[in-house]
Amino acid sequence: MLKSLSIENLATIESLTIEFGPGLGALTGETGAGKSIVVGGLGLALGGRASADDVRPGRKLTVVEAHFKPPLPASVRHLIRGELEVEWEAKEPLGLRREVSRAGRSRCFVNGQMVGVGDLKRIGELLVDFHGQHEHQSLLRPGAARWALDAYGGHEALLKEVRVAWDETRNLRQRGEELERAARDFEQRLDYLEFQLEEIHRFDPQPGEMERLEHDERRLARADALVAQAAEAYAMLYAGRDDGRGEASLLGLLREVERRLGELAEVEPPFADALERLAEQKAALEDLAFSLRDYAESVRADPRRLDEVIARLEEFRRLARKHGGNEATLLEARAAMQSERDRMTRDDAERGQLGKKLERAEARLRGRADKLSRGRRAQAKRFAGAVLDLLRELQMEKARFEIEIEPLDAPGADGADRVDFLLAANPGLPPAPLRKVASGGELSRVMLALKSTLARRDVIPTLVFDEIDAGLSAETARRVGGLMERLAASHQILCVTHHAPIAARAARHVAVQKQTRRRATYTEIETLTKTQRIEALAKMMGGDASAKAARQLARELMK
Questions:
Q1: Most buried among 142, 239, 291, 491, using CB within 10 Å?
Q2: CA-CA distance, 435 to 512, in Å (whole number)?
Q3: Whether pLDDT at 517 is above 70
Q4: Are residues 74 and 104 located together in one domain of the fold?
Q5: How many helices (H) and strands (E) does the chain have?
Q6: For residue 372, is it within any domain?
Q7: What is the DSSP string of 81-103?
Q8: Contact 131, 463 (CB under 8 A)
Q9: Same domain, 545 and 504
Q10: 35 and 118 share a domain?
């Protein structure tokens, strides 16, 4: 339910806040007072079209904000929290805010969190339904007649069955199209994959093998030099050189140093620590010397093995270049091609089974759509009759209202029918689609009759009627007011009206007035007391608000 609306700097409105309540609320005022501006402000807050011209002269920014009181439809919660991921507790009030600058830029907020104007509009359409002389949002949307008929007939379960069958059929058709596209080059692609995989499998690359091969190549290519270097380093460290010069080894010299340090340490204790460190370093050098000796003894020149290593490394590099440039990409390519080959094999088997699955799914869809169609046809006359009864109550006695159901070429997510509302407002003319033949006043009364017939099914909580009573006689307006009052038992109604019989039925009456101060025009509002309402109703009926007869008639209307 709409709880309040605040407007700042919109056209002739400088600043105002309207509090709303349940049931029927009336918004009245003389022509040009600004009633439509108030309704337009609500439309802006709900994502309606904005213009830089909306901003009040001399101001930089128009701000409109609407607050809604829970409970609100589940569809609103799913959209805000689920799809838009805006934080909002369903038990808390919901605030929608719109800012429009003189430059024409617009910013939208849901509970203080910025959203796009399109998202704000989607939320607004779930909260408020606008109906005016030239604007019947929900009534004339594509699919509205089908939705209304299904809502009246209680076809939710049937419609859900159709949509489940449609989703299954659509998914199978899409899968079939994918498989058919893949089948066009199936053999060629499969042969390519088999050839590439056979080449890689025959070579059988192993993780880390390229690095090992490169190391073996370097070692085998320089085997003699490596042995010589290792042997010489071992001799320098441990055995000493046998080259005629009789040079002592490094470890031999260190042993002499160790002996001398030992003698010093006996007299000078500080040298004991140095002696200990020297022993550790000597041990490390001895380990290094033995490793060099073992390496020199293990490495042998092997030309045949070198040729094998070079040949495998070249093949490894060729395959790697072919499949991405290095060992990792080669191994990844092998895994990917194996996966694709396996999938193609499965797809080929699936393609052979898909046709029968699709036939069964289409048969289920047709069966459920036919069942829904029978339900729609069974309810269409009852629904049309209920609407027609209300149209007669609204003084469209000679109108004909029908619901046309035409079969579609193939069933879809909403069944196998095209549903349309047909109206012949005057005798002698055949019924035609409602959107093409109804005048503003006629369309308003048809909409009101439809909304009233669907009152228990319509989940949009707030309905706004913007001067839909224009051109109606006093008696018709009285009947429209009575129907609105009944509709207000299940919906919050905001009605902009010039007719006293409608305003008199409102639970809350707000008057809109235009004031001129300092050569500037201001639109202001006032929630009327009972006494003020009597005066306003008397004036709306064309009488003197202070005249006793007019005031008495106003009291009678309010009863």
A1: 491
A2: 32
A3: yes
A4: yes
A5: 18, 15
A6: no
A7: IIIS-----TTS-EEEEEEEETT
A8: yes
A9: no
A10: yes
Contacts (Cβ under 8 Å, ≥6 apart) of 86? 80, 110, 111, 113, 115
- Percentage of the chain beyond pLDDT 90 is 52
In the predicted model, what is the mean pLDDT of the chain?
88
For the question of whether the overall pTM of this predicted structure is more than 0.85, the answer is: no
- Bridge partners of 61? 101
Contacts of 250 (CB under 8 A, 6+ apart): 236, 237, 238, 285
Tell me how far CA of residue 422 lies from CA of 15, 143, 399, in angstroms: 44, 14, 10
What pLDDT does residue 474 have? 82
Q: 3-state class of 37 per DSSP?
A: helix
What are the tokens at 159?
């419609």
Torsion of CA 117, 118, 123, 128, to 10 degrees: 80
Mean pLDDT along residues 105-123: 95
For 10-28, how does the pLDDT look when each residue is reduced to its tens digit (9 = 90+)?
Answer: 999 999 999 999 999 999 9
**pLDDT attached to residue 241:** 60
**What's CA 524's distance to the chain center, in Å?**
39
> SS3 of 447, please?
helix
- Arithmetic mean of pLDDT, 121-136: 81
Residue 320: inside a domain: no
Beta strands, E only, 413-507:
415-424, 432-433, 462-466, 492-496
Q: Report the C-alpha gap between 182 and 190 in whole angstroms.
A: 11
Measure the CA–CA gap between 377 and 383, rounded to whole angstroms.
10
Task: Provide the pLDDT for residue 543.
Answer: 65
* Same domain for 133 and 43: yes
Cα 511 to Cα 210: distance, rounded to the nearest angstrom: 88
Give the model's pLDDT for residue 63.
Answer: 97
Count of domains forming the chain: 2
Q: Are residues 506 and 558 in the same domain?
A: no
> How confident is the model over 36-49, as a mean pLDDT?
93
Banded pLDDT at 245 (limits 50, 70, 90) = low
Considering the domain architecture, whether residues 513 and 550 belong to the same structural domain is answered as no
Neighbouring-strand partners of residue 23: none
Burial of 493 (0-12, 13-18, 19+ CB in 10 A): buried
What is the C-alpha separation between 460 and 151, in angstroms, rounded? 13
Tell me which amino acid residue 282 is.
K
Tokens 């000078």 found at: 268
User: In sequence order, what are the residues at sequence separation of 6 or more whose Cβ sits closer than 8 angstroms to the Cβ of residue 457?
Assistant: 151, 152
CATH number of domain containing 61: 3.40.50.300
Secondary structure of residue 287 in the 3-state scheme = helix
In 430-551, at which residue ranges do the beta strands (DSSP E only) sit? Answer: 432-433, 462-466, 492-496, 508-517, 520-527
The residues near 377 (Cβ < 8 Å, ≥ 6 apart) are: 405
Per the structure, the complete domain to which residue 111 belongs is given by: 1-138+460-528
Q: Is the peptide bond before 71 cis (omega within 30 degrees of 0)?
A: yes
- Answer for the pair 64, 98: CB distance below 8 angstroms, yes or no: yes
Q: What pLDDT, in 10s, does the model give residues 297-346?
A: 888 888 898 899 899 999 999 999 999 889 999 999 999 999 888 887 77
Question: Distance (Å, rounded) from C-alpha 313 to C-alpha 216?
Answer: 10
Q: How many CA atoms lie within 13 A of 36 on its CB side?
A: 12
What is the pLDDT, as a whole number, of residue 246?
A: 56
From 47, 34, 54, select the one nearest 100 (Cα to Cα). 54
Give the pLDDT band (50/70/90) at residue 66: very high
According to DSSP, residue 239 is labeled I
